[in-house]
Amino acid sequence: MGGPRGAGWVAAGLLLGAGACYCIYRLTRGRRRGDRELGMRPSKSAEDLTDGSYDDVLNAAQLQKLLYLLESTEDPVIIERALITLGNNAAFSVNQAIIRELGGIPIVGNKINHSNQSIKEKALNALNNLSVNVENQIKIKVDSSFLSLYDSHVAKEILLRVLTLFQNINNCLKIEGRLAVQPTFTEGSLFFLLHGEECAQKIKALVDHHDAEVKEKVLTIIPKI
Protein backbone atom coordinates (compact mmCIF):
# COMPACT_ATOMS: atom_id res chain seq x y z
CA MET A 1 0.00 0.00 0.00
CA GLY A 2 2.64 2.68 0.70
CA GLY A 3 5.53 0.62 -0.66
CA PRO A 4 7.05 3.04 -3.20
CA ARG A 5 6.35 6.10 -1.05
CA GLY A 6 7.82 4.40 2.05
CA ALA A 7 10.89 3.39 0.10
CA GLY A 8 11.29 6.99 -1.02
CA TRP A 9 11.18 8.26 2.55
CA VAL A 10 13.77 5.70 3.61
CA ALA A 11 16.06 6.69 0.74
CA ALA A 12 15.66 10.36 1.59
CA GLY A 13 16.46 9.66 5.25
CA LEU A 14 19.57 7.74 4.34
CA LEU A 15 20.68 10.54 2.06
CA LEU A 16 20.18 13.19 4.76
CA GLY A 17 22.00 11.04 7.32
CA ALA A 18 24.92 10.54 4.98
CA GLY A 19 25.02 14.26 4.29
CA ALA A 20 25.06 15.11 8.00
CA CYS A 21 27.86 12.62 8.64
CA TYR A 22 29.89 14.09 5.76
CA CYS A 23 29.41 17.63 7.16
CA ILE A 24 30.63 16.53 10.61
CA TYR A 25 33.62 14.83 8.99
CA ARG A 26 34.48 17.99 7.04
CA LEU A 27 34.16 20.19 10.11
CA THR A 28 36.39 17.89 12.19
CA ARG A 29 38.96 17.54 9.41
CA GLY A 30 38.95 21.30 8.84
CA ARG A 31 39.47 21.97 12.55
CA ARG A 32 42.43 19.61 12.68
CA ARG A 33 43.92 21.12 9.56
CA GLY A 34 43.35 24.60 10.98
CA ASP A 35 45.17 23.62 14.17
CA ARG A 36 48.16 22.50 12.16
CA GLU A 37 48.13 25.66 10.07
CA LEU A 38 48.06 27.78 13.22
CA GLY A 39 51.25 26.07 14.32
CA MET A 40 49.83 24.37 17.38
CA ARG A 41 52.42 21.88 18.67
CA PRO A 42 52.61 19.51 21.59
CA SER A 43 54.44 20.50 24.74
CA LYS A 44 58.21 19.99 24.47
CA SER A 45 59.95 17.57 26.79
CA ALA A 46 63.20 18.64 28.49
CA GLU A 47 65.33 16.62 26.07
CA ASP A 48 63.44 18.03 23.08
CA LEU A 49 64.47 21.51 24.21
CA THR A 50 68.14 20.57 23.77
CA ASP A 51 68.04 18.97 20.30
CA GLY A 52 69.06 22.14 18.45
CA SER A 53 65.77 22.45 16.53
CA TYR A 54 64.01 24.62 19.11
CA ASP A 55 64.89 28.25 18.42
CA ASP A 56 62.42 30.05 20.70
CA VAL A 57 63.51 31.73 23.93
CA LEU A 58 62.51 29.41 26.76
CA ASN A 59 59.93 30.41 29.35
CA ALA A 60 60.17 29.77 33.09
CA ALA A 61 58.48 26.35 32.95
CA GLN A 62 60.79 25.19 30.17
CA LEU A 63 63.87 26.49 31.97
CA GLN A 64 62.78 24.57 35.05
CA LYS A 65 62.52 21.37 32.98
CA LEU A 66 65.98 22.01 31.56
CA LEU A 67 67.54 22.58 34.98
CA TYR A 68 65.95 19.41 36.33
CA LEU A 69 67.35 17.47 33.37
CA LEU A 70 70.79 18.99 33.92
CA GLU A 71 70.73 18.05 37.59
CA SER A 72 69.35 14.53 37.17
CA THR A 73 71.16 13.08 34.14
CA GLU A 74 74.61 11.54 33.99
CA ASP A 75 74.69 11.35 30.20
CA PRO A 76 77.54 13.67 29.05
CA VAL A 77 75.90 14.29 25.65
CA ILE A 78 72.65 15.47 27.26
CA ILE A 79 74.53 17.52 29.87
CA GLU A 80 76.50 19.32 27.17
CA ARG A 81 73.42 19.99 25.03
CA ALA A 82 71.47 21.23 28.06
CA LEU A 83 74.30 23.61 29.01
CA ILE A 84 74.44 24.99 25.46
CA THR A 85 70.67 25.64 25.48
CA LEU A 86 70.83 27.15 28.96
CA GLY A 87 73.81 29.33 28.03
CA ASN A 88 72.05 30.65 24.95
CA ASN A 89 68.95 31.52 26.98
CA ALA A 90 71.05 33.11 29.74
CA ALA A 91 72.07 35.78 27.21
CA PHE A 92 68.64 37.39 27.81
CA SER A 93 68.40 39.54 30.95
CA VAL A 94 64.92 38.30 31.87
CA ASN A 95 66.15 34.70 31.82
CA GLN A 96 69.22 35.58 33.89
CA ALA A 97 66.85 36.48 36.72
CA ILE A 98 64.54 33.49 36.15
CA ILE A 99 67.43 31.00 36.19
CA ARG A 100 68.67 32.53 39.47
CA GLU A 101 65.20 32.35 41.05
CA LEU A 102 64.84 28.71 39.96
CA GLY A 103 68.08 27.85 41.77
CA GLY A 104 69.92 27.24 38.52
CA ILE A 105 73.20 29.02 39.27
CA PRO A 106 74.67 26.33 41.59
CA ILE A 107 73.46 23.62 39.18
CA VAL A 108 75.45 25.22 36.37
CA GLY A 109 78.37 26.00 38.69
CA ASN A 110 78.68 22.36 39.74
CA LYS A 111 79.33 21.34 36.13
CA ILE A 112 82.57 23.36 36.10
CA ASN A 113 84.11 20.54 38.14
CA HIS A 114 83.09 17.91 35.57
CA SER A 115 85.93 15.76 34.23
CA ASN A 116 84.74 16.26 30.65
CA GLN A 117 86.53 19.34 29.26
CA SER A 118 83.76 20.14 26.78
CA ILE A 119 81.15 20.13 29.58
CA LYS A 120 83.43 22.32 31.69
CA GLU A 121 83.71 24.77 28.78
CA LYS A 122 79.94 24.88 28.17
CA ALA A 123 79.30 25.40 31.90
CA LEU A 124 81.69 28.36 31.89
CA ASN A 125 79.91 29.79 28.83
CA ALA A 126 76.58 29.63 30.65
CA LEU A 127 78.09 31.06 33.82
CA ASN A 128 79.65 33.92 31.84
CA ASN A 129 76.25 34.92 30.48
CA LEU A 130 74.67 34.64 33.92
CA SER A 131 77.47 36.68 35.53
CA VAL A 132 76.65 39.92 33.69
CA ASN A 133 73.81 40.26 36.21
CA VAL A 134 75.13 41.66 39.51
CA GLU A 135 72.56 39.81 41.62
CA ASN A 136 73.69 36.57 40.01
CA GLN A 137 77.31 37.27 40.93
CA ILE A 138 76.37 37.20 44.61
CA LYS A 139 74.90 33.70 44.12
CA ILE A 140 77.88 32.22 42.24
CA LYS A 141 79.94 30.10 44.66
CA VAL A 142 82.79 27.78 43.03
CA ASP A 143 85.64 26.90 46.20
CA SER A 144 89.45 27.78 46.10
CA SER A 145 89.98 24.93 43.62
CA PHE A 146 88.34 27.18 41.02
CA LEU A 147 91.55 29.21 40.92
CA SER A 148 93.34 26.21 39.43
CA LEU A 149 91.52 27.04 36.18
CA TYR A 150 93.82 30.08 35.90
CA ASP A 151 96.95 27.92 35.71
CA SER A 152 98.99 28.14 32.51
CA HIS A 153 98.64 24.43 31.70
CA VAL A 154 94.83 24.65 31.48
CA ALA A 155 93.36 24.31 27.98
CA LYS A 156 93.15 27.57 26.04
CA GLU A 157 89.33 27.39 25.67
CA ILE A 158 88.91 27.08 29.43
CA LEU A 159 91.42 29.85 30.18
CA LEU A 160 89.70 32.29 27.84
CA ARG A 161 86.35 31.63 29.50
CA VAL A 162 87.54 32.02 33.09
CA LEU A 163 89.32 35.24 32.09
CA THR A 164 86.06 36.45 30.51
CA LEU A 165 84.25 35.60 33.75
CA PHE A 166 86.71 37.78 35.66
CA GLN A 167 86.10 40.61 33.16
CA ASN A 168 82.31 40.30 33.39
CA ILE A 169 82.35 40.59 37.17
CA ASN A 170 84.67 43.59 37.06
CA ASN A 171 82.76 45.35 34.28
CA CYS A 172 79.42 44.92 36.02
CA LEU A 173 80.60 46.63 39.17
CA LYS A 174 82.54 49.48 37.65
CA ILE A 175 81.63 52.47 35.51
CA GLU A 176 84.51 54.55 34.17
CA GLY A 177 86.87 52.85 36.57
CA ARG A 178 84.83 53.60 39.69
CA LEU A 179 82.76 51.22 41.77
CA ALA A 180 79.18 51.60 40.56
CA VAL A 181 77.50 49.44 43.19
CA GLN A 182 78.62 47.99 46.47
CA PRO A 183 76.88 44.64 46.99
CA THR A 184 77.85 42.49 49.93
CA PHE A 185 79.93 39.54 48.77
CA THR A 186 80.38 36.77 51.29
CA GLU A 187 83.68 34.99 51.74
CA GLY A 188 82.40 32.02 49.75
CA SER A 189 81.33 34.06 46.73
CA LEU A 190 83.16 33.94 43.42
CA PHE A 191 83.69 37.71 43.53
CA PHE A 192 85.50 37.41 46.85
CA LEU A 193 87.66 34.63 45.44
CA LEU A 194 88.52 36.39 42.17
CA HIS A 195 89.52 39.61 43.90
CA GLY A 196 91.94 37.96 46.28
CA GLU A 197 95.73 38.18 45.99
CA GLU A 198 96.13 34.57 44.85
CA CYS A 199 93.93 35.10 41.80
CA ALA A 200 95.70 38.36 40.93
CA GLN A 201 99.07 36.61 40.96
CA LYS A 202 97.80 33.77 38.77
CA ILE A 203 96.39 36.17 36.18
CA LYS A 204 99.59 38.24 36.12
CA ALA A 205 101.63 35.07 35.53
CA LEU A 206 99.59 34.40 32.38
CA VAL A 207 101.10 37.45 30.69
CA ASP A 208 103.87 35.10 29.53
CA HIS A 209 101.45 32.50 28.17
CA HIS A 210 102.47 30.92 24.85
CA ASP A 211 99.07 31.58 23.24
CA ALA A 212 98.68 35.10 21.80
CA GLU A 213 94.91 35.23 22.39
CA VAL A 214 95.28 34.36 26.07
CA LYS A 215 98.10 36.86 26.46
CA GLU A 216 96.04 39.62 24.81
CA LYS A 217 93.09 38.93 27.12
CA VAL A 218 95.37 39.02 30.19
CA LEU A 219 96.86 42.38 29.12
CA THR A 220 93.37 43.91 29.05
CA ILE A 221 92.67 42.63 32.58
CA ILE A 222 95.92 43.43 34.42
CA PRO A 223 95.29 47.21 34.64
CA LYS A 224 92.03 46.44 36.48
CA ILE A 225 93.60 44.18 39.11
From TrEMBL:
Residue ranges constituting the Armadillo repeat-containing domain according to the UniProt record? 58-142
Query: Which InterPro entries does this entry report, sorted A to Z?
Result: ARM-like, ARM-rpt_dom, ARM-type_fold, Armcx_regulator
The record's listing under PROSITE patterns reads: PROKAR_LIPOPROTEIN
Q: Does this UniProt record's set of keywords contain Transmembrane helix?
A: yes
Q: Which GO terms describe its cellular component?
A: endoplasmic reticulum membrane; mitochondrial outer membrane
The keyword Mitochondrion appears for this protein: yes
Q: Which UniProt keywords apply?
A: Endoplasmic reticulum, Growth regulation, Membrane, Mitochondrion, Mitochondrion outer membrane, Phosphoprotein, Transmembrane, Transmembrane helix
Which locations, inside or outside the cell, does it occupy?
Endoplasmic reticulum membrane; Mitochondrion outer membrane
Report quaternary structure and partners. Answer: Interacts with the DNA-binding domain of p53/TP53.
Q: PANTHER family attached here?
A: ARMADILLO REPEAT CONTAINING PROTEIN (PTHR15712), ARMADILLO REPEAT-CONTAINING PROTEIN 10 (PTHR15712:SF19)
- Record's function text: May play a role in cell survival and cell growth. May suppress the transcriptional activity of p53/TP53.
Quote the protein name from its UniProt record.
Armadillo repeat-containing protein 10
Supply the Gene3D superfamilies for this chain: Leucine-rich Repeat Variant (1.25.10.10)
Query: Membrane-spanning residues where?
Result: 6-25
